[in-house]
Design brief:
The complex is a heterodimer of chains A (410) and B (385).
Chain A (H helix, E strand, L loop, with lengths): L2 H15 L25 H13 L17 H13 L9 H13 L2 H12 L5 E4 L15 E5 L2 E12 L6 E7 L10 E7 L5 E6 L8 E12 L3 E2 L5 H17 L20 H9 L8 H30 L6 H24 L13 H13 L9 H12 L5 H8 L1
Parallel strand pairs in A: 1-4
Antiparallel strand pairs in A: 2-3, 3-7, 4-5, 5-8, 6-7
Helix pairs in contact in A: 1-3, 4-5, 4-6, 6-9, 7-9, 8-9, 9-10, 9-11
Chain B lengths: L6 H17 L3 H8 L8 H9 L18 H13 L6 H15 L2 H12 L5 E4 L14 E5 L2 E12 L6 E10 L2 E2 L4 E6 L5 E7 L5 E13 L3 E2 L5 H38 L3 E2 L2 E2 L4 H29 L5 H30 L10 H13 L4 H11 L3
Parallel strand pairs in B: 1-4, 2-4
Antiparallel strand pairs in B: 2-3, 3-8, 4-5, 4-6, 6-9, 7-8, 10-11
Helix pairs in contact in B: 1-4, 4-7, 5-6, 5-7, 7-8, 7-9, 7-10, 8-9, 9-10, 9-11
Classes of the chains: A alpha+beta (410), B alpha+beta (385).
């Protein structure tokens, strides 16, 4: 079909099918994560999800055979342009879409795709990520959660940490050790299982920001069918890294938050750091603190250049295939920008950004404080900034690995 | 808006890359310096650049150009930046011809621009009067006299002013003791009586000039933009400078990439403590950070060039992205050139090695048409804070 005809079709479909309330700015507690037990705060969200899922447009480029939209890259661009033209909210946000689905499509068996992909598209199953362990953070490949063959099953024992929303998830994609003999990277497998399986338990972790988006997850003799292993025994590391690229691309989006609305009905003074800084100083037209003014200009310039870089990287990756090593660069830079944004907001608001709870502070001020603390995790989760710089140095710049050099010397 | 080059633009970039690699090595600049070349650029390379049509890339076809747009000129400048090619491309084409395009009448453009395209006329733009870029500080006066104007004033940092056939001088018209608020541009012949051109050898081995104008007579026909209103003339001049800033940023991008590539190569061959120094995390992380910053510069430059060719752009939208880009690129040029010398260690301090040329050029280009602080201040003002 001609792109222009497709555009016309999309536009009229959206006109009819996108509920009016779904065209208002997104609100944090109305984000649709999907899953067995998901409670829709806004009934329109449910309708919007169902309609989009029926078209496969929650995952526009995934194959129709598995419930996806089957659109070409060009068509999916048209769709996203038309969605943003009417300010439509995302019908579904999930780790299934942004992380797991892409690697299942690349590496899973036909049966596995048939079982899992349609449920991701429809938001029926909410996934969580079992990667980090108490003893394996940046050195993820040293992970020790053990999966031992027992008949047609694996018996899994161990624990994971920093599992985002594990207490709300239905299934987990999990890295487990299936071999202890060879090099650490070569004994890892990628396996999927239901969080309701006997022996799985979770415990939320309270963060410095006061919120608990992460959990500790424990596996005590968890029995998982061997057919749930993806991509072959001991082949998990390649899949794990591929998935991390998708995760980093997702997290780098935080750096684009400069213009993100957090408040539904009216744009917030916090949306733009410079507006907040002038507001809390009673300035108009020009920010009176010249040092802060220069720092904010620097921040905004970097944000703009970063947004252009994300766009360019997207365009270039559409020419090639999937995310490239630049995802590490984007993740790293985007996180640092988001952290800078909150440090500047703190400077902008003075003591109004130092409250913890209760009266005396507006809720949007308390949000700044909490989000400032939360932002510190941006450069830790999904691989620390230091790990990203290692990846760039080795994979993009081709610099030698000191560990290998020392080994070959000894 | 897409940030990807189209096929023609990519072809142009590749042909520029090949030309520069084969015909204009960095050694040329060293040679120009060591022989105290009077022109300050290599005539043979310049003639070839003219033959390749680079002088007419951004000039309309009705005035002898090829109407290929600023993205085209930008990718060429990026490539010449790699080897620090010294040529009239920036002073005569990017600045001089652009000033004439924005201020001249059709008659004036028909008279001057085709000559620039053919390489038969070299221009230089004389704007700055202080050692710090201050486009609002124009004190050079043009007093109305019979048949023309009498120019008085001083100009500095006039790129290639010593070889230009004609100088495009920015001044304010004085009409019977009343100083205009607007700007006018005057095309002054290099041999005009009362014009003193003093060549200044700069640290980057390129050449600038200081001008002193004492009762220099300019014919009415050589005043550009006499019909342009005062407000409009200021914003048009800002647009000319913005095009210059974006073009210079394109060149800086090529130079910083080359300096970075040179450094990266060194990290992969120099051994200390029995291993390649590129294996040290202390250097790896700094290299990775530089790579990220250079990628941001590439996007900013690309976005700015596309905005120049965007038919829906406004003076404001161009001003914002020009200052954003020049600020960012200037900061990163400083970072990369400093790190390039440091990571090379002792050899980076030697004149024999090329890396020194990059740090010298970086500083001149950083200052030229406004440094990072100038553009951050302007960016903040343009964004109402």
């Amino acid at each position: 079909m001609q792109l222009s005809a497709f555009r016309t079709e999309v536009r009229s479909w959206l006109e009819t099918n996108c509920p009016k309330s779904m065209r208002l700015p997104a609100v944090q507690d109305e984000v649709v994560w999907g899953g067995r037990n998901f409670q829709f705060k806004n009934p329109d969200s449910k309708i919007w999800l169902e309609r989009m899922a029926d078209k496969g447009w929650t995952c526009p480029t995934w194959p129709e055979e598995f419930g996806g939209g089957g659109l070409s890259k060009e068509e999916s661009i048209v769709l996203s342009q038309e969605l943003s033209r009417i300010n439509a909210r995302p019908a579904l946000t999930s780790f299934g879409i942004s992380m797991l689905g892409p690697v299942l499509l690349e590496s899973a068996s036909y049966e596995q795709k048939l079982e899992h992909i349609p449920k991701i598209v429809r938001g029926e199953i909410r996934w969580c990520q079992g990667y980090s362990e108490p003893g394996s953070g940046s050195d993820l490949a040293s992970l020790a959660t053990r999966a031992l063959v027992d008949g047609d099953d694996y018996l899994i024992n161990g624990s994971k940490v920093w599992t985002s929303y594990a207490d709300k998830a239905d299934w987990i994609f999990c890295l487990v050790r299936t071999d202890v003999e060879g090099p650490k990277h070569a004994g890892i497998s990628f396996i999927l299982f239901d969080m309701e399986t006997s022996g799985v338990s979770t415990k939320p972790i309270q963060l410095i920001s006061g919120s608990s988006p992460f959990c500790e997850t424990f596996f005590d003799d968890v029995r998982v069918p061997a057919k749930n292993l993806v991509g072959g025994v001991n082949n998990g590391w390649a899949i794990a890294k591929r998935l991390l690229q998708h995760e980093r691309t997702m997290i780098s989006g935080f750096g684009l938050a400069d213009s993100l609305n957090s408040d539904p009905d009216h744009a917030s003074i916090m949306d733009k750091v410079e507006d907040a800084a002038m507001h809390y100083r009673g300035d108009s037209g020009r920010l009176s603190d010249p040092v802060l003014r220069d720092e904010i200009a620097q921040f905004k310039i970097d944000s703009e250049a970063f947004a252009l870089t994300s766009q360019r990287s997207l365009e270039e990756s559409k020419k090639g295939q999937g995310p490239t090593a630049t995802s590490s660069m984007l993740k790293n830079y985007g996180c640092e920008l988001n952290k800078r944004r909150y440090e500047l907001l703190l400077q902008a608001l003075g003591s109004c950004a130092l409250g913890w709870e209760g009266s005396g502070f507006k809720s949007e001020e308390l949000t700044v404080t909490r989000e400032w603390l939360r932002s510190k995790a941006n450069s830790i989760e999904g691989g620390t900034s230091e790990v990203q710089l290692n990846v760039i140095a080795k994979r993009v710049l081709g610099l030698p690995d000191i560990l290998n050099m020392r080994k070959s010397r000894d | 808006m897409s940030l990807a080059l189209n096929e023609d633009q990519e072809l142009l970039q590749n042909s520029a890359k090949n030309f520069v690699a084969q015909n204009a090595p960095l050694g040329l600049l060293r040679q120009l310096r060591d022989t105290s070349n009077e022109r300050g650029f290599d005539e043979k390379v310049w003639t070839q650049m003219v033959e390749l049509g680079w002088t007419g890339i951004a000039i309309e076809d009705s005035f002898g150009g090829f109407d290929f747009g600023y993205v085209g000129l930008g990718v060429v400048l990026e490539e010449t930046g790699r080897n620090l090619v010294s040529s009239p491309l920036i002073p005569s084409v990017l600045l001089g011809a652009t000033a004439i395009s924005y201020f001249g009448s059709d008659v004036q453009k028909k008279r001057l621009l085709p000559e620039v395209v053919k390489g038969q006329l070299l221009l230089a733009l004389a704007g700055d009067e202080l050692p710090i870029h201050s486009p609002n500080h124009i004190q050079t006066s043009a007093t109305k006299v019979v048949g023309g104007y009498r120019l008085n004033g001083n100009k500095t940092f006039v790129l290639d002013g010593h070889v230009a056939d004609k100088l495009v001088v920015v001044a304010k018209v004085d009409n019977g003791g009343v100083r205009s608020q607007g700007l006018s541009l005057f095309v002054v012949d290099k041999k005009a009586p009362g014009l003193d051109v003093q060549r200044t050898s700069m640290v980057d081995c390129r050449n600038c000039a200081n001008l002193t104008l004492t009762d220099v007579h300019v014919e009415e026909e050589n005043r550009l933009g006499s019909d342009i209103a005062a407000n409009d003339s200021t914003s048009r001049f800002a647009r000319v400078l913005d095009i210059g800033r974006i073009g210079v940023a394109s060149e800086m991008l090529g130079s910083m990439q080359a300096a970075f590539d040179l450094t990266l190569e060194y990290l992969k061959q120099r051994e200390q403590f029995g291993v390649l120094i590129g294996s040290f995390q202390g250097l790896q992380h700094r290299a990775a950070a530089m790579y990220s910053e250079i990628e941001l510069c590439r996007s900013a430059v690309r976005g700015a060039l596309f905005e120049l060719d965007n038919p829906e752009s406004s003076n404001d939208s161009v001003a914002r992205i020009a200052s954003m880009t020049k600020a960012k690129v200037s900061d990163v040029a400083k970072l990369v050139s400093n790190e390039a010398v440091q990571m090379h260690g002792g050899i980076g301090m030697t004149d024999e090695y090329d890396v020194g040329f990059y740090i010298k050029r970086a500083r001149v280009a950083q200052q030229f048409l406004g440094d990072a602080a100038f553009h951050r201040d302007r960016y903040a003002t343009l964004n109402s804070f």
